[in-house]
Amino acid sequence: MTLSWAEEAVSATTSASTQDVCSSATFKPETADFNSELHARPSIYFIGPAIVEHVAFMPLDGAIEEFHDTLEVDGEISVRVERHTEFVTVTRLRKLDSDPERWPESDLTESDLARLAGLNSPRLICHVSILALGNSPDELGPVLKTFGFGDTAASSIGGGSAQVCSDFRVRPDNSSRIILFNKDLNAHRLGRMVRRIFEIETYRSMALLGLPEARRLAPLLGGYDAELVQLTNRNLSTPTQQHKRLLDEITVLSSHIISATAETRNRFGATAAYAKIVEERIALLRETHVPGFQRFGTFVERRFKPAVRTCEATALRLEHLSRATMHLLDLLQTRIQVEIEFQNATQIQAMAERAATQVKIQRAVEGFSIIAISYYLLSLLKFLYETADHAGFHIDPVIMLVAVPVVVGAVAITILRVKHALKAEN
């Protein structure tokens, strides 16, 4: 049987909605997808002693194309495969006839569980086994030693309806073990409680994937900090002619910081999201203290939150470095821009002075042009006077004397009118 309870609920909801919609209306499949999120990832409900194995895998290519759950039941064994955004989980329930005296050995390897998930050689994220037993004994310590538990954390959960115990140690088979003593949880509450514990372990492991990135970046960020301080000090004393070299070095540093931020942004964001889920699931356990033992949720939080805060601090440090580098880059660009504007102002002043000199030269040339044109016209008049005199026409020399100021005045007036006309057009 490969039909999950969530798929049955979605199928029933879809069929009921179709009966209420008229035949002319178009039913969009997306509506069913949105509604199916309300029924996604149900628990495996069971009662009585059982061993429940939960394994989370991450595909090596990082691609999960389908997001659906499948449930297979074969007698006393139930297997549920769930596909999440980044990982795939396999939960296998095997019922037991009675409470065992020793920890039941698994009859499947991690490779077998990966094949159930449809993955080939994926990355193992976590492997957790929960042994669900009857009511908790009066003396918890000897029972835990029987099952090979060391320094154990234990809590009453569900308002005292059950008791959870774990030493959080990874065995040679890469699995960690948890014992759940059931006092009065029914099948539905027991299944949900087991699911919450598995989610705490799975999301805790997924959140901690950001810790190696934070540790890898720690020495790099120290170097970036030192380089930023050095460049900032150099920005105060660098001469104008060396601004380009300093700008190149700041740009390279900014590129490294942006690259590191881009590489880790998604991972640190996922760490924060998974950590939030872990906190919510621990709160849902409704823990109470078991005398002589540290609480289960307290143990997880005290050792889990520092790693999450390390990732948060690294992400924040990257952001601050990026802002500081960009600010330094802006300051240097401002200095360069001010220098350029000063040079432009100097050039504009020099151009203005040259323009003023050209105006003075132009005025001098205008005076010379009046004299030159007047001399040319008077030369023509003299040529006409001499020609007329040789031809027998005698002209009074007084006329030539009067012509000199008349010609000069006419040329000056003409040149001034042309100059005013050009100014009016401009």
UniProtKB/TrEMBL annotation:
<feature type="transmembrane region" description="Helical">
    <location>
        <begin position="364"/>
        <end position="385"/>
    </location>
</feature>
<dbReference type="InterPro" id="IPR021830">
    <property type="entry name" value="DUF3422"/>
</dbReference>
<keyword id="KW-0812">Transmembrane</keyword>
<dbReference type="Pfam" id="PF11902">
    <property type="entry name" value="DUF3422"/>
</dbReference>
<keyword id="KW-1133">Transmembrane helix</keyword>
<keyword id="KW-0472">Membrane</keyword>
<protein>
    <submittedName>
        <fullName>Putative membrane-anchored protein</fullName>
    </submittedName>
</protein>
<feature type="transmembrane region" description="Helical">
    <location>
        <begin position="397"/>
        <end position="416"/>
    </location>
</feature>
